[in-house]
Write a structure and sequence with these properties.
Length: 251
C-alpha cells in the first residue's frame, strides 16, 4: 500500500516549501514505502508535468532536485509500496497520466482487468504498465473524456470497481488537473490490511495553513484534530490553487 500527499497554495512555491513542514515526516514513510516515488505539478502554461523514479525516495538525487527546483501552486507526491506480483519499474510507478492530468492511487483491487470494458480498447492501448492503479486512472480518464467533471468521474470509476471487483482494499487517490487537485477516499473496513495496520490507516485528512496553503495526505505521522479534518468515505475533496477554495462533494 502506498502513501499520498497533495498541496495547493495561493502563490507559487518550490515544492519543498509547498509541502513545508509535512514534507519530511511524509518522506520518512519511504523507509517502508520504498518501491518508487513520483511527483506531479501544475505548470504556468496550464498543463501538468510529472517526474517519477522506481527507487526509494531517499536513494537518489533526483527527488531533491525536483523538490528544490520545481515550482508550482498545486502538486502531488506519491510513495509506492508495490502490490505482490507487480514489478517495480518506471511503467508501474505513480503518477499516471499526461499533460492534462496526473493520478496517484493508494490501494488495490482484483482482478486487475475488471475495468477493461469500461476503459475501452482505444484508451486501454495507452496503458504503459500492469497495475490496477493505472486501470483506475484510465477509467477516470474515460469518464472525463466523455464529458464528466473530475468529481463525478472519480465517483463513477469507484462505483465501477466496487460493482465488479472481487475485492478492493482501498480506492484512495489524488487527481491533479490544470484547474484543481482532487482527493477521493474509500476503503474496505474488513480488509486484512486494516487488521494489520489499524482502522485509521486508510484515512485521508486535510487542512489549511496560515501561510496560504492547503494540504491533503494519507496517515502515518501525527495529524491532530481540529487542525486536520477527516475526509468522509466516498467523498471527493476539490482544492483550488490561487483562491484556496476547498469543497467536499458527496453523493
Amino acid at each position: 500500500m502506498c502513501r499520498l500527499i497533495g498541496a495547493v497554495s495561493r502563490q507559487t512555491f518550490p515544492l519543498r516549501d509547498l509541502f513545508a513542514d509535512d514534507l519530511e515526516p511524509f518522506l520518512e514513510l519511504a523507509e517502508e514505502h520504498g518501491d518508487g516515488w513520483g511527483t506531479a505539478v501544475r505548470v504556468p502554461d496550464g498543463t501538468v508535468e510529472a517526474v517519477k523514479a522506481p527507487e526509494r525516495a531517499h536513494d537518489g538525487p533526483l527527488l531533491n532536485t525536483v523538490l528544490n527546483l520545481s515550482e508550482s501552486d498545486a502538486a502531488l507526491l506519491h510513495l509506492r509500496m508495490a502490490s505482490p506480483g507487480l514489478p517495480v519499474d518506471r511503467t508501474n510507478t505513480h503518477p499516471f497520466g499526461d499533460r492534462d492530468m496526473a493520478f496517484a492511487h493508494n490501494g488495490d483491487f482484483v482482478p486487475v482487468d475488471v475495468l477493461d470494458t469500461v476503459i475501452g480498447p482505444d484508451l486501454l492501448a495507452s496503458a504503459h504498465g500492469t497495475t490496477d492503479s493505472e486501470r483506475f486512472y484510465l477509467a477516470v480518464r474515460r469518464r472525463v473524456d466523455d464529458g464528466l467533471d473530475p468529481v463525478k468521474a472519480l465517483m463513477q470509476a469507484a462505483d465501477d470497481i466496487r460493482a465488479a471487483a472481487e475485492r478492493s482494499a482501498s480506492l484512495n487517490c489524488l487527481l491533479l488537473t490544470s484547474e484543481a487537485l482532487y482527493a477521493y477516499t474509500e476503503h474496505d473496513p474488513h480488509s486484512v490490511v486494516i487488521d494489520r495496520r489499524g482502522t485509521g490507516y486508510f484515512g485521508l485528512r486535510y487542512r489549511t495553513t496560515e501561510d496560504g496553503r492547503a494540504v491533503v495526505a494519507s496517515t502515518g505521522w501525527p495529524q491532530p484534530s481540529p487542525e486536520w479534518t477527516h475526509l468522509p468515505e466516498r467523498h471527493v475533496l476539490r482544492m483550488s490553487p490561487g483562491t484556496l477554495d476547498l469543497t467536499v462533494h458527496g453523493r
